[in-house]
Recover the amino acids of this structure.
């Protein structure tokens, strides 16, 4: 492996994110092979007709494009999107808000957003309007939750695939509303502040404005790039062109564009990686209230390489595909 194929990169707005680009390592001998996880056809509590198997929905978007809610004795049918409390929550509103030395009570919201009545992701990815409906419902729910004076941050995540942490195959998101700002986002806020003070400009606005070999998509409302300092090959960042701290002011037209982008990117990743299904996560980073300067965005991370002791012990990630090469391949296959 030649020395010029090695690079150390540090993210410009998150200084704790360090990557070693080592494209030659993809050729190394591998004794361990990936085990194929086969998801059996099982009963799904998220499918239409099984609404009683989940907690009552806090918010339901119906096929008539109306917002409704369930009650203990009644479930809304003919839905497009359902949002309900996670049955096994990491956070709860049924406890008092409080903090001690190095710890907080786990007050907050942990909710499930069932994105579509369709159980299979492949079918869902062909229906961009379903992703759009999910974002419509999500935006409304975020507006409701952020009115809770105890809530400081809302994180939205998607786990797709067994290795990505999904326990149910049916397409769904999760929402975590906390009384504190998660450390990764707090670190990004610090990075944004440093960039603004040093360069007088938001680092993500700068990415939006500049041409780059890492650009994958450039639409009317969003720019998609492979990460400069990735933790996984083909890792992406989706940046709204409008500088906002969160998605509350995002228009319906912008949400439609975002839905198309996400579905297109996942389908293209499957094609490029030559897999019928891929394990991936994405998360939406946002800031609310008066926490600091920020530009909301989505980070999408396909799970391709297994992290070893270096990555886990140091936070430095060895990545075997150069981001510029990944972007070129994705562009050609979109």
């Amino acid at each position: 492996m030649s020395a010029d194929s090695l690079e150390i990169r540090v993210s410009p707005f998150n200084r704790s994110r360090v990557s070693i680009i080592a494209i030659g390592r993809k050729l190394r001998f591998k004794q361990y092979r990936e085990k194929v996880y086969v998801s059996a056809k099982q009963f799904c509590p998220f499918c239409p007709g099984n609404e009683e198997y989940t907690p009552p929905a806090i918010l339901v978007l119906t096929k008539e494009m109306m917002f409704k809610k369930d009650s203990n004795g009644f479930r809304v049918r003919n839905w497009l999107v359902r949002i309900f409390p996670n049955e096994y929550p990491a956070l709860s509103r049924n406890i008092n808000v409080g903090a001690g030395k190095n710890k907080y009570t786990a007050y907050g919201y942990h909710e499930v957003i069932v994105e579509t009545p369709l159980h299979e992701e492949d079918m869902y990815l062909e229906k961009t309007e379903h992703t759009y409906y999910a974002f419509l419902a999500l935006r409304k729910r975020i507006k409701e939750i952020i009115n809770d004076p105890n809530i400081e941050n809302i994180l939205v995540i998607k786990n797709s695939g067994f290795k990505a942490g999904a326990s149910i195959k049916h397409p769904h998101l999760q929402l975590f509303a906390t009384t504190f700002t998660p450390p990764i986002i707090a670190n990004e806020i610090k990075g944004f502040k440093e960039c603004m003070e040093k360069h007088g400009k938001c680092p993500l606005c700068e990415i939006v404005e500049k041409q780059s070999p890492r650009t994958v998509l450039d639409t009317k409302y969003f720019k998609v790039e492979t990460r400069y300092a990735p933790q996984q090959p083909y890792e992406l960042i989706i940046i709204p062109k409008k500088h906002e701290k969160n998605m509350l002011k995002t228009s319906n037209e912008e949400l439609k564009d975002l839905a198309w982008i996400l579905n297109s990117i996942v389908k293209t990743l499957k094609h490029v990686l030559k897999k019928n299904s891929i394990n991936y996560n994405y998360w939406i980073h946002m800031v609310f209230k008066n926490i600091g300067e920020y530009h909301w965005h989505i980070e999408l991370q396909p799970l391709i390489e297994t992290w070893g002791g270096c990555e886990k012990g140091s936070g430095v990630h060895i990545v075997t595909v150069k981001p510029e090469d990944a972007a070129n391949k994705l562009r050609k296959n979109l």
Q: What stands out?
A: The chain has one domain: 3-24+39-333.
